[in-house]
Amino acid sequence: MLDLVRLNRDVVFPPGGEDLYRQIGRLTELTPQTEVLDAACGRGVTGLFLAESFGVQGVGVDHDPVLVQQAERRGRESTAAGRFTFETASLDDLPFKDASFDVVIGEIGLAALADPARAVAELARVTRPHGCVVLVQLIWTGNVDPNRREILVSHLGARPMILVEWKQLLRDAGVVDLVVEDWSDAPSPFRPSASGPFPDFSEIFTLREKFAILRRAYRRWGWGGVKGAVLREREVHRLLTRERVLGLSMIKGTRWPADPAAP
């Protein structure tokens, strides 16, 4: 599903929508002096939104150089040009010194593109003492047998975890004072109806956009691949909407100093 969405030329705001990222801005008290890292930034939508809305400066990183190039192009056209930059990097081996950022955000792609434990440890490492680490992640909310989980993981292109697992990874990395908010039912351009954090493909795009996406998918996968992707999307969407096994959570915590005596 994420591959189909990425084939659209128009940028779609991530699950949770602008309201979620405004809330992150309020909770982390973003100001123009705040330095932000956005990990698994994709096309740079959220990083540029935070730069435009709160005046922050920062860096977005993603393992996909094509998405990073698109983010850089959007950044040059943004009113926040020069305040938010983008680079290709491994998400579980970040190319930054310890304590480089005031606020670090780990997006949904984090769990799909890196080992979650190592990735969360890296997010904490590059966060300044008493700075904020924020995760926006897919959460298993219902019992799903292992086979069906793997079908969902393969289809979505992301590997959800249960909430307590994400919280434990943060605590193990030295992130404390955790605050959790459930954003599973928040409307957004990505999920306009109350069907969970992921929508039916048919709900996101206009007919013209769908034809354009499918043409690009055909060139990449052939008709067999296009048909399989759409059929799997419909099947999995029914599971997600009827059984509500998947949710979206925002988890915010404070990076505790490695040395308890540190200021």
Keywords:
single chain; 263 residues; 7 strands; 7-stranded mixed β-sheet; 10 helices; alpha/beta
Summarize the structure.
With 263 residues, this protein is α/β, with parallel strands linked by helices. It has helices at residues 2-6, 17-27, 45-54, 65-77, 110-113, 116-125, 146-156, 163-172, 201-204, 207-243, and strands at residues 35-39, 57-62, 84-88, 101-106, 127-140, 175-182, 246-255.
Helix content: 40-55%
Give the ordered list of helices and strands. Answer: HHEHEHEEHHEHHEHHE
Tertiary shape: globular
The number of strands is 7
- Biggest β-sheet, characterized? 7 strands, mixed
What separation lies between the terminal Cα atoms?
A: 46 Å
- Give the rounded overall mean pLDDT: 81
Q: Report strand order across the widest sheet.
A: 3-2-1-4-5-7-6
- Rg, Cα atoms, Å: 18 Å
Unreliable segments of 5+ consecutive residues: 188-197
In terms of DSSP E residues, the strand content is: 15-25%
Helix and strand content put the structural class at alpha/beta
Number of helical stretches of at least 4 residues:
10
Describe this structure in words.
With 263 residues, the chain is α/β, with parallel strands linked by helices. 44% of the residues lie in helices and 21% in strands. It contains ten helices and seven strands. Strands 3-2-1-4-5-7-6 form a seven-stranded mixed sheet, with helices on both faces. Helix 4 links the parallel strand 2 (57-62) and strand 3. Helix 6 packs across helix 8 (163-172). The protein is globular, with a radius of gyration of 18 Å. The N and C termini lie far apart (46 Å). The relative contact order is 0.17.
